C-alpha cells in the first residue's frame, strides 16, 4: 500500500488514491460489510452493558462500545464485528495501527457524526482523522 495520499482528484474506485486494489484482499471494505460489522459490535456492546449495568440502551452502551472497539482493534487488528465480516483496520502505511489510532477512531465513531460523512475512498472522517482504513481480508 502506498503511503502517499493525494486529495487532488476523485478516484475511479474506493482506495485507488491509496494504492489499494479495486476488488478482493486488501481492497477497501465496502459500506455493507462495514455496516454489518458495526451492527455486530453494537449488539456485543449492548450485551456487555446489560451484564454489567442491567441497562442495554441509551448512554450506557457508548462506553462499552468504545472500549470494545479500542481493545479489539488494538489486539485483533479490527473489531470483533470487523473480523466476523472479513475486515481489518490498517494504518495508511499498511501496518497495524498504533494504540492511539483506535482510541481516536473509536471516540469519533461513538460520536456518530464523523462516520456519516466519507470521501471517494469510502473512508469516514473518523478514519481520515485517525489515519486508518478498513480493508478486506
TrEMBL record:
It is found in: Cell membrane. Its main location: membrane. This is RDD family protein. Residues 1-20 are annotated as: Disordered. Keywords: Cell membrane, Membrane, Transmembrane, Transmembrane helix. It comes from the Bacteria. The chain crosses the membrane at residues 35-53, 59-77. Residues 37-131 form the RDD domain. It is a multi-pass membrane protein. Coiled coil: none annotated.
Amino acid at each position: 500500500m502506498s503511503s502517499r495520499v493525494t486529495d487532488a482528484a476523485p478516484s475511479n474506485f474506493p482506495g485507488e488514491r491509496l494504492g489499494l486494489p479495486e476488488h478482493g484482499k486488501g481492497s477497501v471494505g465496502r459500506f455493507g460489510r462495514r455496516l454489518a460489522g458495526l451492527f455486530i459490535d453494537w449488539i456485543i456492546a449492548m450485551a456487555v452493558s446489560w451484564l454489567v449495568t442491567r441497562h442495554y440502551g441509551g448512554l450506557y452502551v457508548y462506553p462499552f462500545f468504545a472500549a470494545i472497539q479500542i481493545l479489539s482493534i488494538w489486539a485483533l487488528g479490527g473489531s470483533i464485528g470487523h473480523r466476523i465480516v472479513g475486515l481489518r483496520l490498517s494504518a495508511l502505511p499498511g501496518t497495524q495501527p498504533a494504540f492511539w489510532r483506535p482510541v481516536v477512531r473509536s471516540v469519533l465513531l461513538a460520536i456518530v457524526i464523523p462516520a456519516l460523512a466519507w470521501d471517494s475512498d469510502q473512508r469516514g472522517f473518523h478514519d481520515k482523522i485517525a489515519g486508518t482504513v478498513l480493508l478486506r481480508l
